[in-house]
Amino acid sequence: PSRIVQQKDGSVQSEAMSDWVFFRRVLVVLATVVVAYLGWKIAALFFIFFAAVLIAVLLSGLAALLAKLTSTSRGWALTASSLTVAAVIVAILSLFGTQLAGQISDVFARLPDAIEAGGERLGIHNAFEQIKEAVSGEGGGQLLSRVANLGYTAIGVATDLVLIIVIAVYLATDPRLYRAGMIKLFPPEQHERVGDALDVTASALRLWFLGQLVSMVLVGVLSGVAFWWIGLPSPLGLALVAGATNFVPMIGPLVGAIPALLFAVTQDFGTVLWTMVAVLAIQQFEGNLITPMVQRRAVDIPPAVMLLGIAVFGLLGGIAGVILAVPLTVAIMVLVQKLWIRETLGEKTTIPGET
Questions:
Q1: DSSP class of 286
Q2: Same domain, 201 and 315
Q3: What digits encode the pLDDT tens for the residues 245-264?
Q4: What is this structure's pTM?
């Protein structure tokens, strides 16, 4: 191998490159490829860790608020806030769990008839049977294999959820320990800058999470009332689907509206029309009134940036990437605005989560 060297007089000459220099560059390229490949393979662990960080940020924020209001120690405040969240979830499940489970089961039980009815209206006969044949593939063996894989997937999801909760509790218990460990990965002269950036990012994530929670609850309540008034079956279950899918902005509301529209198709044209009007009205209300009001105190993400984040992280992490795409985009946006735009380029900018 050789390289081009420019002399002092401006002339250009080719000089033989030493074998060691060439070998070292090859090693650097190979190491970069290996690191990129390993990063791709362990992307699932990254999304698990970030989900735990998101929950830990929420628990830590609730604990800080409770400690400020009651003048108790942070440890007791964290325990009280965690128990409060768990108690609220248990209370909701106790009060509405049986009815909600029945309605969600009813949603899945009615889906085959809804798919058949929708297919008939589109001129597709035996739509559900065709879907089953497409899923089953060439034979029953493949179907059993898919069912087994689905079971393993469900077990994996449950395991991941337990792991996320355990990591979140550890992170929320002593966040300063893990914050200090993260800061030590950088040069000493950058410790204060990195620590400040981490604090601002955590504050922005907390604001986004609380704002999104408000939006999800309002969409769920409005959807439940609308579906009950229209006369759709299982309005509580459909409302839960609509509220939960609203966690992913822009794409989630479209997914959450599908079960309600499928149920409406099984009835009459008037029900379909009223369901479409209700879904569109709720989403317009959420997008033009609820979201702007929430974002005044939370985090405002440009729609194009949000869609790009969903596409990129969805490609990297699948469903988990899509679910966590927006908070990941929030974190990246805050870090870019603070570390690059403001502190490196010197431009004035407003950073979400900064006091």
A1: I
A2: yes
A3: 888 877 788 888 888 887 78
A4: 0.70
